[in-house]
Amino acid sequence: MLQSAERVDDKFREVDIDGLFSHIKDSDFNDNYYLQLALMEQMIFVTNDGKIPSQIIKVPIITGNPALI
């Protein structure tokens, strides 16, 4: 996996800090942070976490979790 991975700068200074805490009851800080990064870098988000607020931050998500499908 590490041979296929690419490091990216997370551009933390550009992250919408207020967005990290929006809908925090439905998700958590880390989920929101990684979704913001995926949005900024035009990435596809791969997860099995059922608490991803995909309706809030629109990024493509690949999952096998029925709660997200």
Please provide a written account of the structure:
The protein has 69 residues and is mostly helical. The protein has helices spanning 17-21, 29-41, and strands at residues 45-46, 61-62. It has a two-stranded parallel ribbon. It is flat and about 35 Å long.
Rg computed from alpha carbons, rounded to a whole number of angstroms: 12 Å
Low-confidence spans: pLDDT under 50, at least 5 residues? none
Proportion of residues in β-strands: 5-15%
Shape: flat
TL;DR of this structure?
The chain is mostly helical and 69 residues long. The chain has 2 helices and 2 strands; from the N terminus they run ααββ. The longest helix has 13 residues, at 29-41.
